[in-house]
Automatic annotation (TrEMBL):
KW Zinc-finger (keyword) present: no
SUPFAM superfamilies tied to this protein: MFS general substrate transporter
Cellular component aspect of the GO annotation: membrane
Designated name of the protein: Major facilitator superfamily (MFS) profile domain-containing protein
């Protein structure tokens, strides 16, 4: 359900277009349907596929700790007590606090320069992790990595939202995150392969994980400079991409749909004004709950498979893949259903129910096969709803700077969720980890409650708009 009554809103917007906007809107009719599809396919490849590939290695670089831990890093760096949890959570201290600065920086210098620089530096930091001798050094590099990664995801989400209309963006978020989900799935297999280099060049297997993944990240950073495109309102044309006329068509259709295709001048007050909207905070809390569960699984799933279910180190690294593959499939289905039926909340609720059932099986069933089935449901239900949550907030927040604020706040809350997620599976709770699993279940239940509340809120205001009693959100230019 959307905040906005689309029919009433679009009629109002067309009536209020200035002469320049009306001329630009005529671009909507300059291409045949076949040409329009071809344009959007090119946007899909250059925007969705490229940022998805970059972000998947951003995720791998930050979440390769459990594979390294079970491959000997725990013993070599003397990770006793809560050392591993500290290494996991310090990433999120800078990941959360640096996000507003990173988002504004990305919008100021453009995605190509931003993503290229961040990806290259992240690669060098991860390479450095291969040569550490003390766990305190890992803490320091994780802090740096968190600062570098802080604006990556919100900028990806924000960039996608500027190229697509409201009910196109859900499938694109899903496609973007499916790449990430599959990368997470096969990161364990990739790490398992790298550990076979144990002893080569005097390096342990866990060191080879960091070294090789860091090199791949650096190579992607170089590729990014030549392939990635910027925001659609950028004056400078990108090599091998769309013509100015085609970009004008993209901008005009977003303007027709949402009324905020063009970015107003930077205003700190306008950026921070998004914090006055209660919806922004509700979306942030939803994502906090999502992130807590997802990061907890990213950091601890191989350990849970080893300690809770008795799998060997190699099997634990490999067996994290199938649940994420199921998550990718359910993610695409969720995104398609959301766009097709123009709903978000019910889709998220369905995913949460799947996650709750999975959590119950992992935590409270005695049979190992059933518990592993629960891992499938928990992982798939939790991860599949991420792009739907991002589309949910993007559809219901208007104005580019307000949406930038919302994306930043949502992901910042995700960072706080990551801190919490790195702490819920404690060593003293093994092998069943019931407190951590109960926390995951509670987060899913809370999300269902919040979404039901938002749905009632949207229904109330949409009904008032249909009666002509209120005018719902306009763009920043008319606030």
């Amino acid at each position: 359900m959307s905040t906005l009554n689309s029919k009433t809103e679009n009629q109002s917007r067309r009536a209020s277009l200035s002469g320049g906007e009306a001329a630009e809107a005529s671009a909507l009719h300059e291409f045949t349907p076949e040409e329009q599809q071809r344009i959007m396919r090119r946007v899909d490849v250059r925007v969705v596929a490229t940022v998805g590939l970059l972000y998947c290695f951003s995720v791998i670089d930050r979440s390769n700790l459990p594979s390294a831990a079970v491959a000997g890093m725990t013993e070599d760096l003397n990770l006793i007590g809560n050392h591993y949890s500290i290494i996991s959570l310090v990433f999120f201290t800078t990941y959360t606090t640096f996000q507003p600065i990173s988002i504004i920086l990305a919008r100021s210098i453009g995605p190509r320069a931003y993503f290229t620089g961040v990806t290259m530096i992240c690669g060098f930091v991860v390479i450095g992790m291969a040569f550490l001798k003390h766990w305190g050094q890992m803490v320091a590099l994780r802090v740096v990595l968190g600062a570098l990664d802080s604006g990556f995801f919100p900028t990806c989400v924000y960039l996608l939202s500027t190229w697509y209309t409201r009910y196109e963006v859900g499938k694109r978020y899903s496609a973007f995150y499916i790449v990430v989900c599959l990368a997470t799935a096969f990161s364990g297999i990739l790490a398992f392969g790298f550990t076979k280099l144990e002893g080569k060049a005097g390096l342990r297997g866990w060191s080879w994980i960091f070294l090789m993944e860091g090199i791949i990240t650096c190579c992607l950073g170089v590729l990014c400079y030549f392939v990635l495109v910027g925001f659609p309102d950028t004056k400078k044309r990108t090599w091998g991409f769309l013509s100015q006329q085609e970009i004008a068509w993209v901008v005009s259709r977003v303007q027709e749909d949402r009324g905020d295709a063009k970015l107003p001048a930077l205003s700190v007050k306008g950026f921070l004004r998004g914090g006055a909207d209660v919806k922004v905070w509700a979306f942030a809390l939803i994502y906090f709950n999502q992130a807590l569960v997802n990061f907890a699984l990213s950091f601890f799933l191989p350990i849970i498979l080893k300690e809770n279910m008795g799998f060997s180190t190699g099997k634990a690294q490999i067996m994290i893949a199938p649940p994420y593959v199921l998550g990718a499939i359910l993610m695409w289905i969720s995104g398609w259903l959301g766009d097709h039926f123009m709903v978000r909340g019910p889709i998220i609720i369905g995913d949460m129910v799947v996650a709750i059932v999975g959590t119950a099986l992992v935590g409270f069933h005695n049979d190992v096969a059933v518990r592993y089935t629960g891992v499938f449901l928990l992982t798939a239900g939790s991860f599949s709803s991420i792009p739907v949550v991002m589309a949910y907030q993007a559809n219901n927040i208007r104005g580019q700077w307000k949406r930038a604020f919302s994306s930043g706040l949502v992901v910042a809350f995700g960072g706080v969720g990551g801190i919490a997620g790195s702490l819920i599976f404690r060593s003293q709770d093994k092998p069943r980890y019931l407190p951590g699993l109960s926390t995951c279940m509670g987060c899913a239940v809370l999300n269902i409650i919040i979404i039901l509340g938002l749905s009632a809120y949207f229904y109330y205001w949409n009904a008032k708009a249909e009666r002509g009693e209120v005018e719902l959100e306009a763009s920043e230019a008319r606030n």
